[in-house]
Design a protein that fits this description.
about 375 residues; mainly alpha; DNA polymerase, domain 1; hpI Integrase, Chain A; 3 domains; 3-stranded antiparallel sheet; 16 helices; elongated
Length: about 375
């Protein structure tokens, strides 16, 4: 049995709480402050909740039509539902007391863009807003030049708006909850060309730095992970490979990485190993291993100095931090770009650079190593 309640003492309309045919409780504004009219609306809501369903989803439009018809028959007046414009303006007002000026400026822009995109729907019932409307908003924002990260923030705000509306009984569904969000490149580095990689090798001060470049090019590993490698991390047996544990783990990434050794890398490392006469527990790159990751004397900056010697511009980005778009990390993007050019599937590319999720491992299973090996062998040789 359903019930009626008010959100608070200042609420203008009764909220109807009722069960759908699948047993879930639904809260819905009756749109009226008249108790008798609200009771009739509740009865109709319960009837519609059990009858009007499409693909298992409550048909909000049917409920709205019946509620509106009933309200007009009883009162002689049209039932005015909450519009996106009205509700979003009220939402912004509710945030002003706690949010900063910058945050409010951002919120207002997002609401403005969304309402402009809705067109006439901005002044119709908020229940008419569907996921397809939000999805098309995403497309228009991307087409208009907005960055994926900016669009994700847009949807985060809209999601907050509609969640609040659901809690207050203004709408039944959250149209921002099921949309496909744009992919954000959180590390927009530029890849090297093969000529640039070979120029870097020539500009290296010694074989230790050349080994660093070989490992970066053929494994896609981060400079810190590679500088931490010991000779025990390198397998020169029947199935030569480089195995290491990533220090930096992102959501969905794998901690342990094992990359098949490209024949060119294997030949280089075997010759380098003979010259080093190191123990299995010794660092492969002893001097680079001692360098700090950051700072002017760190390994990342030292590599950029080698790049400059090779005539390669780091392409520093504009902004407060002015980070380089080309750095050692570009080897990861170089590998992904080259493998993509060889038609290596995306999930295999992600396996190699350690960005894969558990589902990818399940798909490949025991064939994972074979898939990685086949991909690595498609990389070009660095030696003549």
């Amino acid at each position: 049995m359903g019930s009626l309640y008010r959100q608070n003492s200042r609420s203008k309309a009764w909220i109807a709480k009722f069960k759908s045919s699948d047993g879930k409780w639904i809260a819905r504004s009756t749109g009226t402050n008249d108790r008798r009219t609200a009771e009739l609306a509740l009865q109709q809501f319960e009837k519609d909740a059990n009858m009007a369903r499409i693909d298992g989803e409550l048909t909000v439009a049917a409920i709205n039509r019946n509620a509106a018809d009933m309200h007009k028959r009883i009162t002689g007046k049209a039932l005015n539902f909450v519009t996106p414009r009205t509700y979003m303006e009220e939402y912004l007002q509710s945030k002003e007391a706690k949010a900063t000026k910058a945050t409010m400026h951002s919120y207002r822009k997002i609401v403005k863009f969304f309402l402009e995109h809705l067109g006439a729907k901005a002044d119709q019932d908020i229940q008419r807003i569907k996921p397809i409307d939000v999805q098309s908003f995403i497309g228009s924002r991307i087409k208009g030049g907005a960055a994926p990260a900016t669009v994700k923030l847009d949807i985060k705000v809209l999601n907050s708006v509609f969640l609040r509306a659901m809690k207050q009984g203004v709408c039944v569904l959250n149209p921002a909850a099921t949309v496909d969000l744009p992919v954000v490149d959180s590390d927009p580095k530029l890849p090297f060309s093969l000529d640039e990689v070979q120029a870097i090798i020539k500009a290296c001060p010694d074989d230790e730095w050349r080994t660093l470049v070989y490992l970066g090019f053929y494994t896609g590993g981060r400079i810190r992970d590679i500088s931490d490698l010991t000779w025990a991390s390198l397998e020169f047996g029947k199935n030569p490979a480089v195995a290491y544990r990533q220090r930096k783990i992102r959501k969905g990434a794998q901690a342990k990485v094992r990359i098949t050794m490209h024949p060119d890398l294997k030949d280089w490392l075997e010759e380098y190993r003979l010259l080093s006469q190191a123990k299995p527990t010794d660092p492969v790159l002893p001097n680079i291993h001692k360098l700090k990751p950051g700072g002017r004397a760190g390994n990342s900056q030292q590599f950029i100095n080698v790049m400059r010697k090779a005539g390669i511009d780091p392409c520093y980005a504009e902004g407060k931090h002015k980070l380089p778009k080309k750095s050692f990390h570009s080897f990861r993007h170089t590998m992904v770009t080259m493998l993509q050019g060889q038609d290596v599937p995306e999930d295999v590319r992600m396996l190699i650079v350690g960005h894969s999720n558990p589902d990818v491992h399940k798909i490949y299973g025991h064939d994972e190593e074979a898939a990685i090996k086949a991909a690595i062998l498609k990389l070009p040789k660095l030696t003549g």
